[in-house]
Write a structure and sequence with these properties.
Elements lengths: L6 H16 L6 H10 L9 H8 L6 H16 L8 H29 L7 H12 L7 E4 L2 E4 L3 H11 L4 H11 L19 H10 L3 H24 L5 H12 L3 H8 L3 E6 L4 H12 L7 E4 L19 E9 L3 E2 L4 H9 L8 E8 L8 H12 L3 E2 L4 E4 L4 H20 L13 E5 L32 E10 L8 E7 L12 E4 L5 H10 L7 E6 L14 E2 H8 L8 H8 L5 H10 L4 H13 L4 H7 L7 H7 L6 E4 L10 E7 L2 E3 L5 E3 L1 H7 L11 E7 L13 E4 L6 H15 L7 E7 L9 H9 L5 E6 L9 H7 L1 H9 L4 E7 L3 H16 L4 H13 L3 E6 L1
Parallel strand pairs: 3-4, 3-5, 5-7, 7-8, 7-9, 21-22, 21-24, 22-23, 24-25
Antiparallel strand pairs: 1-2, 5-6, 10-14, 11-12, 11-20, 12-17, 13-16, 13-20, 14-15, 18-19
Helix pairs in contact: 1-5, 1-10, 4-5, 4-6, 5-6, 5-7, 5-10, 19-20, 27-29, 29-30
Cofactor: FMN; FAD
EC number: 1.6.2.4
Membrane topology: Single-pass membrane protein; Multi-pass membrane protein
């Protein structure tokens, strides 16, 4: 068969229109495609214009074209976290070719089944993407015909099938029989099969249509590009055995039911935890169970299939407890997101499930304990039986006391329900055993890494909480001109990290404890801090083998992995009490750990309000000298600190900026307590070798986003370091204006103590205002006059303009900073403005503002 007369032009047109169809901004390439196809009269024969256009992923009408483009764009983006990247576009083009080939293969079947003369474009694309959608899991491998294969190979396997089937007489005839047509499934059809087409017409038709070889070449080129950008990087990760284990292991133990049966457990305590507190409470509850002749296990919902909850009743005296923290504005924690999604979609019958819920929240936030309340309500709706009332812990008050109060009433309710009794007093049970390594290869010892061993020496993307990127500090300057505080601006270099961020996102930083505190603990306990050891879980079936990465040294554990600066919780005091040789000190520790009112009051005053950390307690109780390994087992993990990013990726794509104030205060005992992260960052001064200025970090996505339309007005309220995300917002609005976009009013309400002391980013804000990007700059100096002036006072002063922007301009409102006072006062001010100018009652005004929040027009990024 003669080759088409102009294959290069055909191939070029195919590439152009395939990529064009993948980009929603280029959908108007359709008329050009129609014109190009119409140039060949022979192509008009028998509806081949539509077939040609479908062949290059352009469909008969704009609706099917748009649907196909969006579907392909979406699923191609599932292999890349950020759509619009080079890899995303290449994958889109590859899937476009795959869709066209599948259409050619399935066209006779689709036409017969749907009783239409020519299949519409949307159906074959939906079919093609159905296979791709099965790979959109977090796992890197997918089951295909019973075999585990890398997900990126799935569409290419389909491409091979689409290529070889038309060229195999056996498969072609088989497919022809299956669809009930004696048609050879060649790429563009065989004109000789139609007696009404003359030889001349046949030649003309062949010349006007693309051959399958054109598509093969395009697919080959696309495959090479995909390999260059995608597969080539993955090859380096194949030998990484720890990663392979982390992928395969969860599949083996995905059923918590089977694990409970195997280990004889009947109580499972799930935790949704962002900072580790809910996990700690879950561990305490699971350890409590043994006092009542029961056996418990703490479980991360991310590691198990929660649909198995319906089977929990198979276990005698079974109970599911949920310790669920609420993150941000009513959202689930990262590890509870899948569980939350399942609850929303599930229609399971949980009538045999017995449950109880304890929520962890903060009353200063709008949606207090939203996750705990939702889980409690939803489980009941699905038929589960609540055996004890919902507990609501408030971190703005005394979360520890709230938990203890709930726990001391929870267990009696469990005893009554199951007809069991406490077997004795609470006792100390070690969860981990100590193993000291005297002869160990130091290359196998953790030195501060969060996940993979040596990950700081051999950095590999993607970077996240378990694999942070070591960013170099390129700038660290003091922002304030005077005063006692130290406010700073840092810039982290993320070049070559492939980290992408948007204005409003958060940067998470893993700090290190002050070495002097670590050394003092070692001296008091008389321990060689450089001893290499491991703490191994005594429960061999537990997914959590160690409390922190092991093997490591005590020095590393106390520096990078353990929280030694916050006041310890009551369970830690109870466990430590046995090591106090002085009876008075032992009794004092046990009393503070008790649920008695006197003990709670003592714990509140002596530990919490005095801000005594573990070092201060060891110093103030000379007889308390616990083994350092048990102390390391008891202390909670040192958590990452989150900061609102103070830059725009449009202006600073290779750096992330942080605005922070160092925390430093004197306690009631006269000690000077320092914030872990801020004082650690303060000392990160850029130097030439860079070794001392590296910061482990990753980016956490946020819903705190600028409006989609740049022309939408924005009102930003951020006193103190709450200005951080708004620096990024203003930078981005300035960039958009430089690109010729119409930018709406940009209004900032900023507050600080004194104009000549802590007015942050004064020069930058003045420049933005001069350039016309910042249309209004309202600054409240709270202590420059007799009466304090805050941002809410300036809002009231400009209330008419504020209402006009919100009501007529459809402005978006953003609030960043202190949740306890500022955010609440600002919200109350908006209630007053809406009530006055909207002629509404107070309840109506509250409802109006709530609706703004629901619509995403009133956003909060606050902390307490």
């Amino acid at each position: 068969m003669a080759a088409p007369s102009a294959p290069p032009a055909a191939a070029a047109l195919t590439v152009l229109l395939s990529v064009g169809a993948s980009a929603p901004g280029l959908l108007w390439a359709v008329p050009a495609a129609r014109s190009a196809a119409a140039l060949s009269p022979a192509a008009l024969h028998d509806g081949e214009v539509h077939r040609l256009i479908t062949y290059i992923f352009i469909y008969q009408d704009l609706i099917s074209l748009a649907c196909g483009a969006v579907i392909t764009w979406y699923f191609a983006g599932s292999f890349e976290k950020n759509v619009g990247t080079a890899k995303h576009c290449i994958l889109t083009a590859a899937f476009s070719v795959l869709s066209a080939l599948l259409y050619l293969l399935l066209q006779p079947l689709v036409s017969r089944l749907l009783q239409v003369g020519d299949a519409q474009g949307f159906l074959p694309v939906a079919f093609a993407m159905l296979g791709v959608s099965t790979t959109r899991s977090r796992m890197r491998r997918s089951l295909l015909f019973g075999l585990a294969v890398p997900v990126v190979l799935v569409p290419w396997l389909g491409l091979c099938i689409a290529w070889f089937v038309p060229h195999s007489s056996l498969l072609g005839n088989l497919c022809g029989l299956l669809v009930g047509e004696a048609l050879p499934l060649t790429a563009m059809g065989d004109p000789s099969m139609d007696p009404t087409i003359s030889a001349a017409d046949s030649t003309a038709q062949q010349d006007s249509l693309f051959s399958m070889m054109d598509v093969f070449l395009i697919s080959l080129i696309t495959g090479l590009f995909t390999y260059w950008f995608f597969f080539r990087k993955k090859k380096e990760e194949v030998p990484d055995l720890p990663k392979m284990q982390s992928v395969v292991a969860p599949a083996r133990d995905s059923s918590f039911i089977e694990k409970m049966k195997k280990t004889g457990r009947n109580i499972v305590v799930f935790y949704g935890s962002q900072t580790g507190t809910a996990e700690e409470f879950a561990n305490r509850l699971s350890k409590d169970a043994h006092r009542y002749g029961l056996r418990g296990m703490a479980a991360d919902p991310e590691e198990y299939d929660l649909s198995d909850l319906s089977r929990l009743s198979e276990t005698d005296k079974s109970l599911a407890v949920f310790c669920m923290a609420t993150y941000g504005e009513g959202d689930p924690t990262d590890n509870a997101q899948d569980f939350y999604d399942w609850l929303q979609e599930a229609d399971a019958d949980l009538s045999g499930l017995r449950f109880a819920v304890f929520g962890l929240g903060n009353k200063t936030y709008e949606h207090f304990n939203a996750m705990g309340k939702y889980v409690d309500k939803r489980l009941e709706e699905l038929g589960a039986q609540r055996i004890f009332e919902l507990g609501l812990g408030d971190d703005d008050g005394n979360l520890e006391e709230d938990f203890i109060t709930w726990r001391e009433q929870f267990w009696p309710a469990v005893c009554e329900h199951f007809g069991v009794e406490a077997t004795g007093e609470e006792s100390s049970i070690r969860q981990y055993e100590l193993v000291v390594h005297t002869d160990v290869n130091m290359n196998k010892v953790y030195t501060g890494e969060m996940g993979r061993l040596k990950s700081y020496e051999n950095q590999k993307p993607p970077f996240d909480a378990k694999n942070p990127f070591l960013a170099q500090v390129t700038e660290n300057r003091k922002l304030n001109e005077g005063g006692e505080r130290h406010l700073m601006h840092l810039e982290l270099d993320i070049s070559n990290s492939k980290i992408r961020y948007e204005s409003g996102d958060h940067v998470a930083v893993y700090p290190a404890n002050d070495s002097s505190l670590v050394n003092q603990i070692g001296e008091i306990l008389g321990t060689d801090l450089d001893t290499v050891m491991s703490l191994n879980n005594l429960d061999e079936e537990s997914n959590k083998k160690h409390p922190f990465p092991c093997p490591t040294s005590y020095r590393t554990a106390l520096t990078y992995y353990l929280d030694i600066t916050n006041p310890p919780r009551t369970n830690v005091l109870y466990e430590l009490a046995q090591y106090a040789t002085d009876s008075g000190e032992q009794e004092r520790l046990r009393k503070m750990a008790s649920s008695a009112a006197e003990g709670k009051a003592l714990y509140l005053s002596w530990v919490v309000e005095a801000r005594r950390n573990i070092l201060a307690i060891l110093q103030d109780m000379p007889s308390l000298r616990p083994p350092i390994d048990h102390l390391c087992e008891l202390l909670p993990r040192l958590q990452a600190r989150y900061y609102s990013i103070a830059s725009s990726s449009k202006v600073h794509p290779n750096s992330i900026h942080i605005c922070a104030v160092t925390v430093e205060y004197e306690t009631k005992t006269g000690r000077l307590n320092k914030g872990v992260a801020t004082n650690w960052l303060k000392n990160k001064v850029p130097d030439q070798n860079g070794s001392s200025s590296l910061v482990p970090m990753y980016v956490r996505k946020s819903q705190f986003r600028l409006p989609f339309k740049p022309s939408t007005p924005v009102i930003m309220i951020g006193p103190g370091t709450g200005i951080a995300p708004f620096i990024g917002f203003i930078q981005e609005r300035a960039w958009l204006k430089q690109q010729g976009k119409e930018v709406g009013e940009t209004v900032l309400y900023y507050g600080c103590r004194r104009e000549h002391e802590d007015y942050l980013y004064r020069e930058e804000l003045a420049r933005f205002q001069k350039e016309g990007v910042l249309t209004q700059l309202n600054v409240a100096f709270s202590r420059d006059q007799a009466e304090k002036v805050y941002v809410q006072h300036l809002l009231k002063k400009n209330k008419e303009n504020v209402w006009k922007l919100v009501n007529e301009g459809m402005a978006h409102i953003y609030v960043c900073g202190d949740a306890r006072n500022m955010a609440r006062d600002v919200q109350n001010t908006f209630y007053e403005i809406v009530s006055e100018f909207g002629n509404m009652s107070q309840p109506q005004a509250v409802d109006y503002v709530k609706k703004l929040m629901t619509k995403g027009r009133y956003s909060l990024d606050v902390w307490s």
